[in-house]
Amino acid sequence: MADIALKKSANPAGSPVREQLRALDDAAVVTAFLEGEERAFQELVDRYQTRLLNFIYRTIGDREKGEDLVQEVFIRVYRHLHRFDRSKKFSTWIYTIASNLAKNELRNRSRNPLVLFQTIRKNWADDDRPLQFEDSSMRPDDLFRKRHLRELVESSVAQLPEHHREVFVLREIEGKSYEEIAEITDTNLGTVKSRLNRARSSFAEIIAPALD
After folding, report:
1. What is the DSSP track for 19-82?
2. pTM for the whole structure
């Protein structure tokens, strides 16, 4: 079971069943799995594994531990998917599990608190949702400047306090709605908006000198 999240299906990637699963929305894939189609679980892994790793990594600042936590997310999903309320969004449910595991990791650390704000050096994956700002003088093919900007963003996000960093990543990078963030973080809507406003202000103050 521990390897389930990282296993590839024994069936060919281009098999009719896999192609049919790819065409379904999350709710239909969940239903297929609960009705006995084991390959449906791998489809959920394919859809969320990289996204969850990026989210957890940005939250805790440790990629290796992030990979372990993503593994744990899918183990919990596999074990408890029959309890999932299918009237709600699967993405919100799985991000809630990931968020709780990331919070537990931060709480359990006994090292210097500065480790919580360590600089994240890896670039974003190409399919990540970008922040809504850009350098107007940057040409589309100017990969060096694009990479530099992303590194500045990563290091700035890493300096935000934990609660602010979490809502900032969920909103500005993952593109979650305020309502989804409130459910994922188990906080009320007003708190989410307040933390996000503070996170945005802090982020702007941190990154501004590097952009001058």
Report:
1. HHHHTS-HHHHHHHHHTT-THHHHHHHHHHHHHHHHHHHHHHS-HHHHHHHHHHHHHHHHHHGG
2. 0.64
